[in-house]
Amino acid sequence: xxxxxxxxxxxxxxxxxxxxxxxxxxxxxxxxxxxxxxxxxxxxxxxxxxxxxxxxxxxxxxxxxxxxxxxxxxxxxxxxxxxxxxxxxxxxxxxxxxxxxxxxxxxxxxxxxxxxxxxxxxxxxxxxxxxxxxxxxxxxxxxxxxxxxxxxxxxxxxxxxxxxxxxxxxxxxxxxxxxxxxxxxxxxxxxxxxxxxxxxxxxxxxxxxxxxxxxxxxxxxxxxxxxxxxxxxxxxxxxxxxxxxxxxxxxxxxxxxxxxxx
Amino acid sequence: xxxxxxxxxxxxxxxxxxxxxxxxxxxxxxxxxxxxxxxxxxxxxxxxxxxxxxxxxxxxxxxxxxxxxxxxxxxxxxxxxxxxxxxxxxxxxxxxxxxxxxxxxxxxxxxxxxxxxxxxxxxxxxxxxxxxxxxxxxxxxxxxxxxxxxxxxxxxxxxxxxxxxxxxxxxxxxxxxxxxxxxxxxxxxxxxxxxxxxxxxxxxxxxxxxxxxxxxxxxxxxxxxxxxxxxxxxxxxxxxxxxxxxxxxxxxxxxxxxxxxxxxxxxxxxxxxxxxxxxxxxxxxxxxxxxxxxxxxxxxxxxxxxxxxxxxxxxxxxxxxxxxxxxxxxxxxxxxxxxxxxxxxxxxxxxxxxxxxxxxxxxxxxxxxxxxxxxxxxxxxxxxxxxxxxxxxxxxxxxxxxxxxxxxxxxxxxxxxxxxxxxxxxxxxxxxxxxxxxxxxxxxxxxxxxxxxxxxxxxxxxxxxxxxxxxxxxxxxxxxxxx
Lengths: 262, 483
Description:
Chain A is an alpha/beta fold and 262 residues long.
């Protein structure tokens, strides 16, 4: 067995799939980890992500299967689960045999797994669309909206796509602090770009803004957070108090950067 | 009446959101609209929850009253005329600023604006209209707006409000006309149903108009004739405005349709002695005859300690509310009718098991259903099987014979479904077609659910030495369905 390793990004997984296909589907598997838990009698080969090869795989999926299946596979590749690469690989092996109807073969364990990975990614992204919190911050270049979040799955792109439309007229930056990545959007653009970002930069930014506006100011982030907190507590019905339900619907892991809950 | 003029916005927000909290609707679904490019905001058809209050209810919209002054005297309401509470009002600018600041920070999906009745219903509706119009046309807000229709307001004002709102709602409040008369003497069945019908017809007319213009390929020039002067009309101008034609609207800042997310309503549960049968029958009629998107049920809380109304010292009737929502889903997504769930002879829901299980137990002759061959309508009637798992079953069974573990992974809740199904002719180990036995098993499951005891996995292997969950002894006395 030859195990094709990659860096776990979408491009990386697609590149590894391309290479594994070249070697032969009967004797290959995909791994997204850096050779942890190695098997004794397998050969490990690492492939650098190659956007040209990844694009080939992507285009075969949308052309020969369907756009819906491509979306499902793409979302599954954003998952944090370690088996995502191999699940997608085996899903595609079966999919290219069966054709676009593969999505309904839910009894097939790989089809079910890709379905679950996709669902999990979309669910987390949907939750964060609501739970993400922006604040108004400023650096040397000027003023912009900043949101930080720490998702399990690599959903920065899905989030940015949503906010590029919703907050079209704002300069904004969304930072994924678990991957040290951010997306940057300029007001009046439909596009956004990705960049690396450090925790130090983010912390300095937050501190500098607090010093600049002062938390007492009526339009400071703190003042508007406090206003929302007033609303949030007074709109709750005392006679129905149910913190367990609240926590079930808004688990603590979503509240990392939600200042109004600390 | 104590009216304070100099409250700051935080105190106003506190009072006016506290007053709005008994309105159950906080949904932001049903409307899908991209950013127009001129301002902030879009809407997502699924709706988005932005927070959850300490009572576990979703916060999606900024839910506030415009004012808590009120000339009405409804017994269930803390803002009734006869109560001595602090009264205050927002200005339209304050509502707009709050909405915009919260929205761009992603705290909310939009605005839910309701109001106490100040001066007259028409005057109040004018205030609401002025506010949402300002939000759309001056602040270029393109997110979700839900506005209350005020019973008794001039139809032309309600009509125009609909052009700026995604959803409108007129609350039915009480299920019977008699209860409404004694509990909310200033409202009548007619004054509530009239605006509801008006909004329904407005939505239908607009849908036909859009369909016609799509069909003829005619795209109206929307930007030319819009009268921006009307936007800046002074706040004291309460003359009824001319009804707006869709072509007159500014396409950059208004939704493209009339009340595109439809209308909803709300009934208070447990303030009057109506039965569950009456409530679901009314809900069914509202869905059928008024094309409502949602009927909300609000467990009554006796905020005024009014002696003429039931006491809620032991807590509001939350289980009853829960059962009504379960039945509501059965009406809308599962093909049930109200008459199948309840009857004059059997007018209230079972407190121990949910309405779908209850129905299945009374129709044990229709079960077990074979997962691999049954038609969609019969699959939908199996307890523990919902519309999504039905879709998955229908797709998957074209290619393979489904087993219990397959369908469990597709989302079927086995702890309920196992007593009502076969897979490829086989039954589950716990299957027994015995009403008392199934009731005890289902109750046990609900009881565990109520106690928030988590189960490991939906499906458990039967173990020889484990008898704490699986009680095979039939109950001595049959469970009474009327509690």
